[in-house]
Amino acid sequence: MGLLAIIGGSGFTSLPGLVPLETLAVETPYGATSASLIRGELGRGEILFLPRHGADHRLPPHGINYRANLWALRAAGAEWVIGLAAVGGITPLFAPQVLAVPDQIIDYTYGRAHTFYDGTSEGVEHVDFTEPYCESLRQALIQTAARLDEPLIPRGTYGATQGPRLESAAEILRCEQDGCDMVGMTGMPEAALARELGLCYACLAFVVNWAAGKSGSVITMKEIEENLGLCVERVLSILKAVAAR
Ligand code: HPA
């Protein structure tokens, strides 16, 4: 396995247990990354870590420079990228505290710099995105979780919404009718940009709330934070084991 990068989302502004070896401020043609990259040891494996929302969690989902982040990770040698994602659960199996490795994605975001082929480079390549996630990394996550006896749903469609507000109940119903199982705000354009760069990218999602209209009550940050806290250790144990492969 080539060098693994982990992009941390909500709940993972830092990666507990990561022993830093080097901080890398990477210049990119697309501007600044969310934060400096950290090269470090996670368990028995060496990884790169990048907090998607910045080291102090200040960047909203639509304000993240996804192009700079992916470009910098590849420039620093990453071949594999795991995007961590706190999500809302839509379909019945995707209850709070469930972990999942999605296999499909629908993009509802807008106005984000979503491609490296923006007219400034030579030519346009229409990358294949039939299977939006890298199957070998998906399988590494799924098999690692199985080995650790960590329950995880090995599939699911991730709906990427614009945020930063949560959705209306009708918007979630539309996502569900479209086939979404979970909803988050950062899955795109991250997955597509990784594909354009030839990176092997997969998402490790953890459900932190029932999506709007799915629980009969409003969604609170307290609920989200509590569920997030209960997912952190399980996510970390999977990441450590994947990093050691
Ligand atoms: N909607 C969108 N993004 C999210 C949610 C949600 O309900 N929960 C966590 N990220």
From TrEMBL:
Binding site for phosphate: S10, R52, H53, T186
Pathway: Purine metabolism; purine nucleoside salvage
GO MF annotations, alphabetized: S-methyl-5-thioadenosine phosphorylase activity
GO BP terms in the entry: L-methionine salvage from methylthioadenosine; purine ribonucleoside salvage
Key word Flavoprotein present: no
Keyword Glycosyltransferase applies: yes
InterPro entries from the UniProt entry: MTAP, Nucleoside_phosphorylase_d, Nucleoside_phosphorylase_sf
EC number: 2.4.2.44
Positions that bind substrate: M185, N209, W210, A211
A GO-annotated cellular component: cytosol
Catalytic function, reaction form: S-methyl-5'-thioinosine + phosphate = 5-(methylsulfanyl)-alpha-D-ribose 1-phosphate + hypoxanthine
Signal sequence coordinates: none
Domain Nucleoside phosphorylase: 4-243
Record's keyword terms, sorted: Glycosyltransferase, Purine salvage, Transferase
Family indicated by similarity: Belongs to the PNP/MTAP phosphorylase family. MTAP subfamily.
Function noted in UniProt: Catalyzes the reversible phosphorylation of S-methyl-5'-thioinosine (MTI) to hypoxanthine and 5-methylthioribose-1-phosphate. Involved in the breakdown of S-methyl-5'-thioadenosine (MTA), a major by-product of polyamine biosynthesis. Catabolism of (MTA) occurs via deamination to MTI and phosphorolysis to hypoxanthine.
Subunit structure: Homotrimer.
Protein name: Probable S-methyl-5'-thioinosine phosphorylase
Organism name: Caldichromatium japonicum
Top-level taxonomy: Bacteria, Pseudomonadati, Pseudomonadota, Gammaproteobacteria, Chromatiales
